[in-house]
Every structure is written in C-alpha cells, then in structure tokens.
Design a protein that fits this description.
By secondary structure, the protein is mainly α. It has 14 helices and no strands. It has helices at about 10-20, 40-50, 70-90, 100-105, 115-120, 125-135, 140-145, 155-165, 175-185, 200-215, 220-235, 235-250, 255-285, 290-315. Helix 5 packs parallel to helix 12 and helix 11 (about 220-235) packs across helix 13 (about 255-285). The longest helix is centred in the last third of the chain and has 32 residues, at about 255-285. It is globular. The chain binds fe (ii) ion (2 copies). One fe (ii) ion (FE2) binds near residues 140, 166 and 262. One fe (ii) ion binds near residues 166 and 262.
Length: about 325
C-alpha cells in the first residue's frame, strides 16, 4: 500500500504537490532565507521527491519518478542541502586516512539523547522516538542498497553482507524494517510507511534525505559508503541504551527485539564496514577517500541537529513532533 501524500507546509512542497496533481507548472525555486540544513518545507519537498524512487504515493503517477521538471526542482533543493553540508565540513579537523577519521568521528560525542532515553525515557518518549525514526526505519537498508550498483571491486561484498543482514537474510519477518513495523504496532502506532510524515520536522527528514541523496548520485557514492560505515560504528551503544529503556518501561517484546537485533549484529557490522568495506574500497580507489570522510561527518552533524532538536523539546517537557493537523480534505 502506498502512503498518502503529506500536506504541503510552504511554497516548496506546495508547488511540488500542485505540479504532481497537474494543477500548476514547477518553476525555479527561490531559497532566500531558507536554512537548507533544517528547513521544514525544503526537507518535506526533498523527502517526497525521493519517495518517488521508493514507494511513491497513493494518487501520484509513478512515472513522475523520472519527470524532468520534478528532477530539476529536486536538483535545486539538493544543491542547497549539499552545498550547506560541504560548507560546514572541515576536512582538516579529522585525519586524512578514512579508517582513522571514521573512528575519530564515531568517538565525538553529541547531545545525550540516548542517555536521556535510557535514564528518563517514558513510554511516550519511546513512541515519539519511533515516529521520528519511522521515515527511515520502515524502509531500513533500502537507501544504502541503492548505492550497491554504483560500486565495484573490493569492499562491495562486505557491503552486500551488511545489507543481507539488514534484510534478515531473506527470512520473512526478520528484515529490520519488518521488526521495526512490529515494534510500532506494539507501541500502538500506525506501522504503515509514511503515516507520520506530517508530524516530522525538517531536522528529522534531513536524516533520511541525507542517505537518499548520497545513495542516488553516483558522484556521492563514497559518501554513501562513509554514511553506512558510521551508521554501523555508532549503533551499538545507543541501541543498548534504547534496549534498557524498552525493558524498563516493560511489556515491549517487539521493540526490545528490534534493539537487541542491532546490539547483536552491529558489532560485527562495524568491523565489516571498517576492515572489509571501507579499507579495501579506498585502497582500490583512493579518490573515494575524501567523500567517505565527508559522508560520515555529514551524518554526524545531521544527527547532532536532530538530537539537539528532540532533546531540547523533551527537556522543556514538550513534544518534538510537529503539531497534529486538524482533519481537512487533502
Ligand atoms: Fe538494522
Ligand atoms: Fe547494522
């Protein structure tokens, strides 16, 4: 089943959706005053553009995936997002060797979101966190898979091994996305893909857009590799904290399983990613190295912005999600 198109939240998403419905032509965008790293409207428009490559939307023609005006519009949003990520990237602040750089980036601390959830997280925090992550987690691994045909030679087989694990080695129900859907259902949430997009702020959508952008562009394939490597390197500690919280809140076996699976698998995945994926890849093609480091550091900074937003809201005792929308015809 395809998700519904979310509601527009500004001139960018409004223009895109009107074009998809045949109501208006798309024109070049004006991004004055927009923060391309976090803007709600920009990241919704970008996220919806990327979804045409995944599940599409109910009522939106699947052929729009390769619609020229849509791709030109998306390219402008991507140029702004990628440009801002490159602007804040400081390659001289990390070692040049990508393996060492990945270890350094992974060791940098961010806002203590996982510690908050471990120590103080209540059931509503676990629910809200699942809603935030659902934009990615309900299609977990699919983004990185898009990068596989863009890579060749040494290191690719390790990436395939990681991805096979993420898909549960082909066992029905064992794909991490399916385990996550079961956990959402257990939390009383709607596990349909895209059910909560209207509630997700730009800082959350940016975390998913980052991967789609890296994986869907051949010139950014190194960044997709760096993204996957840091993802695996930074998984076990927070996942074990979420697991502690799920067990403390209690009666959440499916959610606990989702976190247990990651605590178990990602020690191995981190080793595979560093020693068998990144290492052989950059030894075979040194030109990939700077982009591997960029992909990892862009992920780290994007996750910091996400965590800062969520934690900042929770510490004030408020929701980190966008306000619930009043029922109205789409
Ligand atoms: Fe996973
Ligand atoms: Fe993993």
């Amino acid at each position: 089943m395809q998700p519904n198109l979310p509601r527009g939240r500004g001139p960018l998403s409004d223009a895109l959706f009107e074009h998809w419905c045949g109501a208006a032509q798309l024109h070049p965008v004006v991004l004055d005053g927009v923060d391309p790293l976090t803007d709600d409207d920009l990241h919704l428009a970008l996220w919806c553009s990327y979804q045409l490559h995944y599940s599409g939307f109910d009522g939106v023609d699947d052929r729009l995936e390769w619609d020229g005006p849509t791709l030109a519009f998306r390219a402008q949003l991507e140029a702004a997002f990628l440009g801002a990520l490159l602007d804040e990237h400081r390659p001289d602040s990390v070692p040049r060797d990508p393996i060492t750089a990945l270890r350094v980036i992974a060791a940098q601390g961010g806002p203590p979101l996982s510690s908050f959830i471990e120590e103080r997280g209540e059931r509503w925090h676990l629910e809200e966190y699942a809603i935030h992550r659902s934009a990615y987690q309900l299609k977990e691994a699919d983004g990185h898979t898009f990068a596989i045909p863009r890579l060749r030679g040494p290191g690719r087989s390790a990436m395939v091994e990681i991805q096979a694990d993420e898909y549960g080695m082909g066992v029905p129900g064992d794909a991490h996305s399916e385990i996550f859907a079961a956990a959402m259902e257990e939390l009383g949430l709607d596990p349909s893909f895209g059910a909560y997009v209207d509630r997700l702020p730009g800082t959350t959508l940016a975390t998913d857009n980052l991967l789609s952008m890296f994986a869907l562009h051949r010139h950014l394939r190194g960044a997709a590799v760096g993204h996957l490597a840091l993802f695996e390197l930074c998984s076990v500690v927070p996942m074990s904290r979420y697991l502690t919280a799920a067990r403390r809140v209690g009666d959440l076996p499916a959610l606990s399983r989702f976190y247990e699976v990651h605590v178990d698998a990602d020690v191995h995945h981190a080793r595979l990613a560093l020693d068998h994926m990144v290492g052989p890849m950059v030894r075979a093609d040194r030109s990939l190295a700077p982009m591997v480091v960029f992909g990892a550091s862009a992920l780290a900074r994007t996750e910091v912005r996400f965590a800062r937003h969520v934690l900042g809201s929770w510490e004030q005792g408020t929701t980190s999600l966008r306000a619930e929308l009043a029922a109205q015809p789409r």
